[in-house]
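Protocol step 4 of 6: record predicted structures for both targets in the notebook before any analysis. Target 1:
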Amino acid sequence: MGKFDREKLVATWSTESLILQNWLGFVIDFLSKATLVGFMAGAAVIVSLQQLKGLLGIVHFTTKMQFIPVISSVFKHRDEWSWQTIVVGFSFLVFLLTSRHISMKRPKLFWVSAAAPLTSVILSTLLVFCLKLKSHKISVIGYLPKGLNPPSANMLSFSGPDLALAIKTGIVTGILSLTEGIAVGRTFAALKNYQVDGNKEMMAIGLMNMAGSCSSCYVTTGSFSRSAVNYNAGAQTAVSNIIMSTAVLVTLLFLMPLFYYTPNVILGAIIITAVIGLIDYQAAYRLWKVDKLDFLACACSFFGVLFISVPLGLGIAVVVSVFKILLHVTRPNTLIMGNIRGTNTYQCLGRYKEASRVPSFLILAIESPIYFANSTYLQERILRWIREEEDWIKANNEGTLKCVILDMTAVTAIDTSGIDLVRELRKMLEKRSFQLVLANPVGSVMEKLHQSKTLDSFGLNGIYLTVGEAVADISALWKSQP
């Protein structure tokens, strides 16, 4: 292969990688705050339930992560429950939760919560060591070999019958790992008010797994339980990861024998303490009060993670979020507006009691871009507003309707179908002796209306900067006519 061919191959690979990064980053953007609230709670419950194996002293436990298999496994192996393990586990769990509560109530005592996990490990290890001759019912970590994983770069193979399967599995695993890792990252980003870049996360997870594949490591992504422990300990920056990795390296090389008598139950208690605070029921209640569709996305994420799996739970929540977007696009909100007495302000009649109708005018606000997906609906909705207004006028013996004003302040974009809607609407209203007026179309909308020559049919009295200006000018024009 020549130099030019190699440069062309590298350029092609870089371009394709950039496209894939941007596409996955775009997909990740559909993980809304509501989705993350549900994911966070569901993952916290699942991780907590997994710790029941250690807290109850169960030996034979399910490898599945879903709620029903875990609960079934807990009660199926009741004969394996160990009261010694339960006493130790729940005692330290109460200690850890109490220390966390103290730190939350008194921020100056943050060190109490930060030091509690390490203190628990030391105390529980000493306790089990002292009782080792009297009780063998408490499961311990046991012997752990010292040293690092052996290198595995020499085992990598890029040929053979399994290569296609490895590529397919790698792509699927990579997408799922990225989705779950971003969900975890954005969960903690929301708690600490910082931003997560999906493209950078993809690069980090990819490079991490590439390095891991050369040192006998499992495929991995952002860990929910370990991130929760890190967050609960008060970590603020990525320096905590450097210190943690250094401590792990020193431990692997020199300190592994010290953990022989560390009970498994204490690890479960630490993880439960870390993740239990991530169940934000107040946020879910606010979603229910404010936006039912957001609450539905939250619930789908929660129950999907709890009963199916993390990827499918997030996938269902994303589908609900996309459905919400499509619903807003295809069924945009339209309002009938009135004048607030004594001012030049026009607001929704249904929201402001002070607002009242302007005689002979029907003022409608469209709160969405006008696209092919909603143009037909908008036309039908506007005509229905006109019929309802005429019925209201007849019922209240008011004057005749003469002018329909469309407030386009919130119409941020328009396509050719939207332009056709404006044209057809003007023609239909003109046949019924109504005048159609556009108020405050934004720059991009105004530009497209001008390029399509739609504005030519509106004349001098068809476009205004504000609704108030349109009402005042047209009313003055009517008064000046004989």
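Target 2:
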Amino acid sequence: MDRKGQGQPITSWTIHMIFRDFLGIRAGLIKALTDYEKFHQQCDPQKPYMCLYGCPNETWELKEPPDGPHELPEPNIGVNFARDGMPEKDWLAHVAIHSDAWLYSYAFYIAIRAGLDAETR
């Protein structure tokens, strides 16, 4: 199982590689949530199953999840469902909470797959 951009299977990642990945994804999510106009425009209500993905290179993308089961944890589906039905701050808080939860589940999943023990995690 290779990770795009890393070139190494997850089982050989170090804690430093995982943390660098975590920081890049986190920075990408922060950029998405702070560039409200661009993020809001891409949340098309006609596409109901959009997910906000943070990327390790500190970028973000809004896209539909892959079909079928996926090994890695997936972000919350449907960030655009309530876009026009909630106050702006509440909607952004909702997306931020789910993005944060996804980021932590992703990081812990990678740490476990890399074989890190509880003390190292």
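Step 5 preliminary note on target 2. The two ends are 20 Å apart (CA to CA). Residues 1-5 have pLDDT under 50 and may be disordered.
Proceed to step 6 after PI sign-off.
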